[in-house]
Amino acid sequence: MRVLVVEDEPTLCRQLRTTLEGAGYAVDLATDGEDGHFLGSSENYDAVVLDLGLPEVDGLTVLDRWRKEGREMPVLVLTARDSWSDKVAGLDAGADDYLTKPFQTEELIARLRALIRRASGNASSELLAGDVRLDTRSGKVTLAGEPVKLTAQEYKLLSYLMHHKGKVVSRTEMIEHIYDQDFDRDSNTIEVFVTRIRKKLGQDVITTIRGLGYALNDPEDRNHD
Ligand code: CA
């Protein structure tokens, strides 16, 4: 999952990047509204953390522009302490949630997780596909109840596929959502991660659809054919 953070306070910026990367997200940063708007318009993010008080273009305007352009990614707005008018304005402009500064980064992570889950139509924080279970809260994966150790990149890839169960995900989409902007995006590495995940969770867990991409294989889906 890839997240954009638009925030102009350097300390908070660094703190958010460290926490989000630690929680398994690929993170891009923008420190003013103009930059933030550009990235949110041109890249595909699974969620955005948007400060309202920003240089160049303020956060509300940025959000309003995205929504008018048809960008639908979930947006969590950061507001100044006790500014209820900011919260109302943020929600009116199309924010999906808000947090008042100062906040605990744990709360931010929990809210982002919920936003991303809801946006992909998953009500529960545990995602299932056959014998594979992925707990989005703890970041743990089990196979038939047994814990399986995945590397950070393997987890990101599996998590993206599990959030989009029943869909074919192209290699390009995968690259866009599991790497940040600065990552050396070699599409061959996706195939390497898929191979490693298959070794750990079974050959059938991910299906390659030639020319299109990958899909998570959920045995229960076959019942609906
Ligand atoms: Ca600010």
TrEMBL record:
Domain named OmpR/PhoB-type: residues: 124-218
SUPFAM superfamilies: C-terminal effector domain of the bipartite response regulators, CheY-like
InterPro entries associated with the record: CheY-like_superfamily (IPR011006), OmpR/PhoB-type_DNA-bd (IPR001867), Sig_transdc_resp-reg_C-effctor (IPR016032), Sig_transdc_resp-reg_receiver (IPR001789), WalR-like (IPR039420), WH-like_DNA-bd_sf (IPR036388)
Entry-annotated residues carrying 4-aspartylphosphate: D51
Keyword terms of this UniProt record: DNA-binding, Phosphoprotein, Transcription, Transcription regulation, Two-component regulatory system
Coiled coil: none
DNA-binding region: 124-218
Biological processes annotated in GO: regulation of DNA-templated transcription
Protein origin, superkingdom: Bacteria
One GO cellular component term: protein-DNA complex
The name this protein goes by in its record: Winged helix family two component transcriptional regulator
SMART domains: REC, Trans_reg_C
Residue ranges occupied by any Response regulatory domain in the UniProt entry: 2-116
Molecular-function GO term, any one: transcription cis-regulatory region binding
